[in-house]
Amino acid sequence: MTPSRAAKRLTIVIPALNEQDKIADTIDGVLPLARELLDDFEIFLIDDGSTDATGAIMDEFAASEPRIIVHHNPERRGVGAGFEYALSRAKFDAITLIPGDHAFQNEGIARMFKAAGAADLVITYRDNQSDRSVNRSLQSHSLRFILNCLFGFWLSDYHSMIVYPVKWLRQIAVKADGYGYQICALISLLQLGLTYVQVPVSLNAELKGSSRALRLRTYFELGGTIVSLLRRVPIRHVDLSQIPDDAERAPAR
């Protein structure tokens, strides 16, 4: 008798700040894929203090889909804060964050959904970063090289979409907001020995000058995140006795 597969149930977080021109395209891409490929899901739309029509567009989607929850921040709080809000309320065992600026092609999102449950973590990697601006591509490659050298996991990407296990993520005190939150969370979980698979995804065409990632503030945030990880601050309070003794990282693919 063929064993039944585990149900694919996923909490999806889509944060956005002043993305009225892209948020509808993002949701229109994610929602049909979630309905087709997942057994159940919920979507948290996080309006991070937008001053344009982003929040109103989110409310329109929520009015027609009961599995969509909208949270409006009165002022900007950062991606990390929005993700933590959804994490504290997630009703499923796995959670992921998809940017609200329509950054990823739908085919890659579909691959990530299909891989959910294949390991503790599903780590996607951007396979067309060379199509981006030279500065943005150089920044991403440099960051990956530094993190691989410092922590030794040799991942293909540290800041793409990731499916996290809610149980373990809730135990980690992530000391970062904004751009550094995901890096801090991912490395902390990898340090615990959780299994993972890597899945390729592709970026949509990027408008030159549209990225916020190159701000000076970002470099300070990342520097602080890396220092905290080297001091192992995020994982001091995790109950390591719950990690299986034979936990190993799954091979990349």
Automatic annotation (TrEMBL):
InterPro entries assigned to the protein according to its UniProt record, in alphabetical order: Glyco_trans_2-like, Glycosyltransferase_2, Nucleotide-diphossugar_trans
Protein name: Glycosyltransferase 2-like domain-containing protein
Keyword Transferase on entry: yes
Keywords: Glycosyltransferase, Magnesium, Transferase
Entry's family note: Belongs to the glycosyltransferase 2 family.
Keyword Glycosyltransferase found: yes
Needed cofactors: Mg(2+)
SUPFAM superfamilies in UniProt: Nucleotide-diphospho-sugar transferases
Domain Glycosyltransferase 2-like: start-end pairs: 11-142
Cross-referenced PANTHER family: GLUCOSYL-3-PHOSPHOGLYCERATE SYNTHASE, UNDECAPRENYL-PHOSPHATE 4-DEOXY-4-FORMAMIDO-L-ARABINOSE TRANSFERASE-RELATED
Lineage per the UniProt record: Bacteria, Pseudomonadati, Pseudomonadota, Alphaproteobacteria, Hyphomicrobiales
